[in-house]
Design brief:
Layout: E1 5-9, H1 13-25, E2 29-33, H2 36-45, E3 53-57, H3 65-73, E4 85-89, H4 94-102, E5 107-110, H5 115-125
Parallel strand pairs: 1-2, 1-3, 3-4, 4-5
Helix pairs in contact: 2-3
């Protein structure tokens, strides 16, 4: 993925470290946020098109992933409407996936995360 810039929002330190390691092993450049509000601020503060993919945990303190995805979409950046936002959750029922898509996310991957699933999901959008 040759330096692909990725923003990861995850409040669980172990899950964050696992995902960050997987992505860095795939040659991504990873920035981390520990809640949805921090992710939105990092996205807003970044140059246009800086982040090519956002991984968003759905259940976080301060601002959950659903609200964060809506805020990113409404941020006013040119790519805000098209940057892939990929939900991450242990909740993988059809209604959970629908809630993610309805909040503006593009895809849902269930936890625990697997490197091959991450790669296939990124490949769908990049």
């Amino acid at each position: 993925l040759n330096g692909l810039r990725v923003l990861v929002a995850e409040d669980n330190a172990l899950n964050m470290e696992i995902l960050k390691t997987f992505l860095e092993d795939m040659d991504c450049r990873v920035d981390c946020a520990c809640n949805g509000s921090e992710a939105v601020e990092k996205f807003r503060a970044s140059p246009e098109g800086y982040y090519r993919v956002v991984f968003m945990d759905v259940m976080m303190p301060v601002m959950d992933g659903y609200a964060a995805a809506r805020a990113i979409r409404a941020s006013g950046q040119t790519r805000a409407g098209t940057v892939p936002i990929i939900a991450m959750s242990a909740n993988a029922y059809a209604e959970d996936v629908k809630k993610c898509l309805d909040s503006g996310m593009n895809a849902h991957i269930s936890k625990p995360l697997f490197k091959d699933v991450l790669l296939r999901t990124i490949a769908r959008f990049v």
